[in-house]
Amino acid sequence: MGNDRANDEHLGHEARAQGDDHLDVKVWLRLLACSTEIEQYIRQRLRARFGTTLPRFDYLAQLERHPDGLRMNALSRYLMVTGGNVTGLTDQLVKDGLVERLDDLEDRRSYRVTLTPQGRADFARMAAEHEQWLTELFGGLPGADKDALYHQLGHLRQHLNATLRNPTP
Fold it and tell me: Quick check: pTM over 0.90?
């Protein structure tokens, strides 16, 4: 029994599932457990290797994908955080020399945030290692399994989007 408890602690969210639970509950708990475990690993590695946080990494990743910069409200939507959180992150990253605020030529009331050359270089190093960490995590799975999982999760995402757009009362 003690061994089962240790296994339950290792499984985290998934340990909550019972044998007679509905399959939908089991699937949700397994997805949550996998996502949480991967996220914790990435958070630990970013902190240990680069002294940074996952929100800062995500912020820089969004700007890397948008070389012309983003307005603060767009950053907030992409990052799914409040405007106040984006403002705080922006202030920190400006202070660290990784991003800069530029006047928005399309809207004089706004500004765009872009990566500085230092921010671009720092993010490139982080992103390369981040990709290696994910490759290590998923390395034990055969390519065909990863491909199938990717496609199945895509189907799930489409189904969820359709269901959430048209919820049943």
Answer: no
